[in-house]
Specification:
About 25% of the residues lie in helices and about 20% in strands. It is built from seven helices and ten strands. Strand 1 and strand 2 form a beta hairpin. About 45% of the residues are buried.
Length: about 325
């Protein structure tokens, strides 16, 4: 039953986030399963395509719907209205060009707290754009840069292994940090965002990057990472996993994990908790039982409405409790 063993107040604030049974043991190797399909995470050191240059932006605009590999879209997919919001495509200046991004904020007023939204492996498609609008309706300036723009257009790829091996594995973490820094600077320069009140949220791939970006940028107020991989993805372009830097993080991050997630074994979650306790970030990890990876992604079969709403309430409280 969702929330068993939790002590909560207000709209679901964590008081005892340790929900994982120590008796369940899962093991991660080079391969995982995405639904019923085997996914190969290897290929981290694959050579770049001939003629590839960091200056080549393969994606110059965002997906207008859901990524092909995310099909078929479930009827539960949520569409948040943009009425009363300023929302849509923008271009963020970066050192080597202009990065496409989606941003949303209330149409009236300004100097809103800023939330960087970090995408899944499917890029800044309809779901991530909707997350920005949901945050805007809560009074935030939300911006999601297309972090894979130089490596490929994942929204048009139908094969998940192709996305992982040809695009995701080739995106350097350092490049992501720089692009998120640029998105934050773009938001502040707009005059609508308060750069001193900066947070970050990420899903799947973005959940992993939330922990890493919190380590990179200690000026952010808080982060929330949904079911991000905590270990097992290190490579020359991804030199650290979240478990490696957990003790060094000073930003409070809330990790929202799935109790039946084969991507993130309970043993790794426990290791992450132990490492976090060695630091001073006051980060917390909640594992929501009986749900799978992607439980918040309303367009996917793994979506769980009760768990998603519960986690979203925790997200809102976490940001508010930390000045956002």
């Amino acid at each position: 039953m969702l929330g068993a063993g939790l002590r909560i107040h207000r709209r679901g604030r964590l008081r005892n986030p340790r929900l994982v049974s120590d008796t369940l043991e899962l093991h991660m190797d080079d391969r995982c399963f995405y639904g019923l399909r085997e996914v190969d995470h290897r290929g981290e050191t694959a050579p770049a395509p001939a003629g590839f240059s960091r200056r080549d932006f393969l994606v110059t605009s965002l997906a207008s719907g859901f990524a092909l590999a995310a099909q078929p879209v479930q009827a539960s997919a949520i569409t948040t209205s943009s009425e009363g919001l300023t929302a849509g495509f923008v271009e963020v200046p970066v050192a080597d060009g202009r990065l496409p991004a989606y941003r949303a904020h209330p149409a009236q007023g300004g100097r809103f707290p800023t939330i960087l939204v970090i995408q899944e492996i499917f890029g800044v498609h309809a779901y991530i754009q909707d997350i920005c609008r949901r945050l805007a309706r809560l009074g935030y300036y939300a911006i999601a840069p297309e972090l894979f723009a130089r490596q490929g257009d994942v929204s048009k790829m139908s094969d998940i292994n192709q996305i992982l091996s040809e695009v995701v594995s080739r995106v350097p973490d350092a490049q992501v940090y720089a692009d998120l820094d640029a998105a934050a600077a773009f938001a502040e320069a707009s005059g609508k965002a308060d750069g001193a009140r900066l947070g970050v949220i990420g899903f799947c791939y973005g959940g992993r990057m939330t922990w890493l970006y919190a380590h990179h940028n200690p000026k952010i107020k808080a982060g929330v990472g949904y079911y991000g991989l905590l270990a097992g993805l290190k490579s020359p372009v991804k030199p650290q996993d979240p478990v490696d830097i957990a003790a060094q993080i000073t930003v409070p991050v809330l990790g929202l994990m799935a109790g039946q997630d084969s991507y993130v074994p309970n043993a790794v979650v426990d290791q992450m908790r132990r490492n976090l306790r060695q630091g001073s970030s006051r980060s917390e990890i909640a594992v929501i039982p009986a749900v799978d990876h992607g439980f918040h992604a309303d367009y996917r079969p793994t979506y769980d409405r009760v768990a998603a709403e519960y986690a979203w309430n925790l997200t809102q409280d976490w940001f508010k409790d930390h000045g956002l």
